[in-house]
Amino acid sequence: MKKETFLAFVALFLLTLTSVVYALEETTKTVTIAEQKADITGDRELDTILLKGVPYQDETDYLKQIFLEVSASNGTAYTIPLESGAKASFQLVDMNDDGVKDLFSSVQTGGSGGIVLSYLHSLKDNVLVDLPVPDPVEIDSHFLNGYQAEIKIKQTGKTYRFLLKDRKSYYKKLGLYYKGKLNEPTELMVNSYHSLKPITLKDGKLGLKGVQRVAGIANADTIAYVESTWAYLNGKWKLDNVKVLEKDQ
Question: Considering only the top CATH level, what class is 31-131?
Fold first, then answer.
């Protein structure tokens, strides 16, 4: 191959590659989910908060990228990446009680589990700090003979038992029980947070309320919900209260 012909081929290849990259960039669409203006740095000036997402081309109800963009009043820009998911939202709440509102954002992961991922960020004095959110309540769980189930909350030591005879035929059909006895030891499905939201606690301060689903052999086989409330004290989350609710309540 002559030198001139080779160079022309290389130039054509690079041009084609550039066109493909440009075309891909053109099809990447960023959508704004929510926008709000508020002082979240403490300088008494308005900052702009944008919640954005990038959907899949063939699945517009799911976002492959989700992130917060903050344009502070002093000209500084911040990008806070979140996990991908089906839906996202944010609230402005002074969760750490420092006099400046924080960013509390949530992402619904989608699917039958109904799991929500939550994030808490502070931008006081234009310093981005990733604050923790409380871990889900630790729960030991298992089925019992006689079409029953039991859970134990590790933090409180309390045990709760559930009668499941209304699911007798369903469990027998799946081979979980035989003549009322378990075929083998089986744990329940204890999910992470189904929801986690800011609430006002009894002392008037802000806290968080989480809800976890406890299911039998599938997420649709809901047995109970565990509600937990949390107070933020000295930079750490303290469990305030736990309530267990049966599905039909």
Answer: mainly beta
Residue (of 122, 133, 129, 118) closest to 40 by Cα position: 122
The count of other CB atoms within 10 Å of the CB of residue 208 is 24
Q: How many Cβ atoms from other residues are within 10 Å of residue 97's Cβ?
A: 11
One-letter amino acid of 133:
V
3-state helix, strand, coil in the chain (%, to 5): 15, 50, 35
Domain residue extents for the chain: 31-131, 139-246
d(CA 1, CA 7): 10
Q: How much is the pTM?
A: 0.84
Q: Whole-angstrom Cα distance, residue 168 to residue 147?
A: 7
What are the tens digits of pLDDT across the range 47-94?
999 999 999 877 667 899 999 999 999 999 999 999 999 999 999 999
Model confidence pLDDT, tens digit, residues 84-123:
999 999 999 999 999 999 999 999 998 778 899 999 999 9
Q: At 195, is the secondary structure helix, strand, or coil?
A: strand
The separation between CA 61 and the C-alpha centre of its own chain, rounded to angstroms, equals 16
Those residues with Cβ within 8 angstroms of residue 55's Cβ, 6 or more apart along the chain or in another chain: 29, 31, 61, 62, 63, 64
